[in-house]
Amino acid sequence: MEIFINEVSLEGQYFTETEFTEAVKIFLDIFFTIKDKIKDKQIYTEESQLLVYYEAIKGSNFISSLNEIKDKRLKRAFIRTVFDKLEAKEWRGEQIHSINDYFDYVSPTETRDVRNTSLAEAAERYLQHQDKLYLLVNFANSSFNQTHPQIQDCCIISVVKNNEEAKPINLDGLDNKAGLKNWLEVRCRWSDFEYDDTSKVPPTDKQTVLRDSTRFEKTSGVIQGRTIYRELRTDRYWYADNLHIGKAAHLEVFDKTGKHLGEADLRGNLNTLKKDLSKTIQL
């Protein structure tokens, strides 16, 4: 999952420090939820020196607007989220789209040149890797408010490449926590997928990566009362360990001969350091 901060949504839409401060609170609420709920993700941001060209408070560039925030703790948290490279990568370091291509944001009310921005980069990545999930996080009260036809409290961000009349690239966007919750439920089936790591019972298969029927198929095998799944691409075999709960919950993974390969977290990230040669399964 790749999540882009949409710097183009900084349009000078805030008239006072109070309005911008409230927008920052909303923005941070979104990202605190992202960091808490989404494990397998990469957050991308624009280079810090280029953000100076965007307005936050009307008539004041982004950096000057940031310096207007009186709450120092809020300001520090915001700076960490946007500028700290441990929190977010600058996408230009691994840029995919060409600066020679044209990218336009289109809506019923406007067409806007978005070449060489996060919107162009996200659109090109979507074109090249449509198997991934992409999300754009907007600053509140921007003009990116075209109603999403499938997800409540979200918006569609339509981008056209090289003025082609073909179907535009439709990216998911949001600017509020309710939208994020709805997006997770629709795109990730989060209500089924989420497992509470304080739980006193093992996760169901639906609360693990095993629910992905495009990646796994059920077999007739059963261990510890749990169904064994075959991973279609690798021919590996997985099941949810029924003896571990909460933070210790995990999946056991075996190769096609039944030899143990290691343990995976509930998102499907395999840790081969947990390989146990004494563990085997009969296939």
Brief synopsis:
This protein has 283 residues and is an alpha/beta fold. It has helices spanning 17-37, 62-68, 72-83, 118-128, 177-188, 190-193; strands at residues 2-5, 11-14, 42-45, 55-57, 89-90, 103-106, 111-113, 134-137, 155-161, 169-174, 216-223, 226-231, 237-240, 251-254, 260-264, 270-271.
Tags for this model:
single chain; 24% helix; alpha/beta; 2 domains; 6-stranded antiparallel β-sheet; 283 residues
Beta fraction of the residues?
A: 15-25%
Structural class: alpha/beta
Mean pLDDT across every amino acid position: 92
The DSSP helix count reads 6
Roughly how much helix do the residues carry, as a percent range?
A: 10-25%
Q: Please give the alpha-carbon distance between the first and last residues.
A: 33 Å
Contiguous low-pLDDT stretches (5 residues minimum) are none
- Rg over CA atoms: 22 Å
Q: Summarize the main sheet.
A: 8 strands, mixed
Count of folded domains: 2
The strand line-up of the biggest sheet is 5-3-1-8-10-9-6-7
What's the count of strands? 16
Spell the H/E element sequence. Answer: EEHEEHHEEEHEEEHHEEEEEE
Principal-axis shape equals elongated
